[in-house]
């Protein structure tokens, strides 16, 4: 079987596995990587950017090396499929989004606050229903790229090492890529690497949101306008793209005062419309699911073109 065919087939099978089984509740490889990275940090940590670079190189380099060895083993389709399943989190994202909307509709703010940490790192204790809705919707938009589009694109471009390496980069950013007293310097490399790794995936996600917006009753022109006008206002070069395009597609407004556990950030306004409701959250979840399928089609074509060359 040609490498182009085996890679595209492996990505597709891994996507299907994610849709059927979602993330395993126990013994997840990403959780194992997080445990190993935390243990490594006890040795590598210093309040210095150079220490953070060393930590990043060791942690991510080890995973890329494992991916390279696995990719050279027999059964390339199976290995790619398992690596894809390991790297993806799209089904869990959609499921959490629906669960959040259900709890908000039921007026169960306690349950919604308990669920929010599975979506993002904001402090749920200070959020009311509107704040929980916005936090969940912005997380759905951003994680559509992080949890599905980016792993698929890196898998199409770099195979198993790309899949596993991207997931390691993204996990490290979630662990140490914060601007607080402990990680502002040590986590700098993790945050910048994650920004670079998501430049292309975020823009593919935005483009797919524009193209597929009519399938959820959304506006392609609104998505494009919000992206062009508002994305650059966001402190993240990637989250701004996906959040702005989602806001424009749904005709809502995102941004504002954002409470994280490490402090408060004032985010710019994205989009023109009113604050999102649980109805908008459900539309965003449907948009995410559709964009994920679109990303599979695009990245399968990318794999075919790349490896044929």
UniProtKB/TrEMBL annotation:
It holds the Pfam family CobD_Cbib. The gene is cobD. Pathway: Cofactor biosynthesis; adenosylcobalamin biosynthesis. The chain crosses the membrane at residues 284-305. Converts cobyric acid to cobinamide by the addition of aminopropanol on the F carboxylic group. Its main location: membrane. It is a multi-pass membrane protein. It is found in: Cell membrane. This is Cobalamin biosynthesis protein CobD. It comes from the Bacteria. Keywords: Cell membrane, Cobalamin biosynthesis, Membrane, Transmembrane, Transmembrane helix. Belongs to the CobD/CbiB family.
